[in-house]
Amino acid sequence: MTLAFTKYHGLGNDFILIDNRHSPQPCLDPDDAARLCDRHFGVGADGVIFALPGQGEADYAMRIYNADGSEPEMCGNGVRCLAQFLADLEGETSVGKQYRIHTLAGLISPRLVGAGQIRVDMGPPYLSPERIPTTLAPGEDAVVNQTLTVAGKNWLVTCVSMGNPHCVAFVEDADVVELSHIGPLFERHPVFPKKTNVEFIQVLAPDHLKMRVWERGAGITLACGTGACAAVVAGVLAERCRPRCRVDLPGGALEIEWAQAEGTVYMTGPAQRVFTGVH
Ligand code: ZDP
Question: Domains along the chain?
C-alpha cells in the first residue's frame, strides 16, 4: 500500500499529515504511526495527524498519535497544521476562513488570519483535579501552587488541562532545567494517572513568558501549543502573568490570550508546509 503524506510544522513541532477524509477510521494503526515518526528509521515527526470527515456541526475531525503511538486528546500546534493542510487541500486562501474541528477534547476552531498565521479558539481550560487528571489537591477547584517532589527537589506546580494534561512549573531560569532527565520523571509521576506534559516557565515580563517543554509521548519538542495555553492559564491562577502573553518557545513565539469572560483560550501562531511524500 502506498501512503501519501505531507509534513508540516508549527514552530518546529513537526507532524505528518494524512488526508483521511474518505473514512472516519485512521488508515494507520498506532505502531505504524510510531514507525513513521522515527527520526532515523522513518520520516521523522513529533506525531501523525489524520484529517477525518466531520459530523454534525464539525467540518472535519482530527485524530493524532504521538511519536510513541499513544493518542492525546488535543494538540495545539497540530490543529494549526491541520487547518493549513485542509486549506491547501481545498485551495482555500481566504483570510478569515474558519474550520470547526471535532477532537477528543471537543470542538476546536482554527481561523486563517493571513501571513501564514492561524488563530485558534482552543476552548476552555479545565482546572479541577479530576479533569486534569491528578491526585494533587483533592477536592479543590483548581490545582495551584502545589508542592510536588521530583528528583529529590520540591517544585511548586500548577496543573491545567487543555483537553490534555499539563503540569506547569515556574522557574528562575528555564535554560538550566535538565529536561531530558527531569521530563520523564514528571511525565510518569504517580500523581498523574494519564501521565502529563510538563512546562518550565520563566517570567520575562508580566506579558512575556519563556517556556521549555517535555511532552507526554514525544519527549523534548521545540514547541507545544496546548502547553503554551496551559502556561498562561497557570500563570494567571498563580498570579505570575497577565491573561494575554507572548510565549517564547525554542521554535519561536505564540500569542496566547485567556479570554476569561468568553471562557476560552485563543492561540495565534504559524503553520508551515515542509514537503509532500509517498511512503
Ligand atoms: O498530550 C500529549 O500527549 C501531547 N504530546 C500532545 C501533543 C501536543 C502538541 N505538542 C501541542 O502543540 O499541543 C501537539
Answer: 4-122+270-278 (3.10.310.10), 143-262 (3.10.310.10)
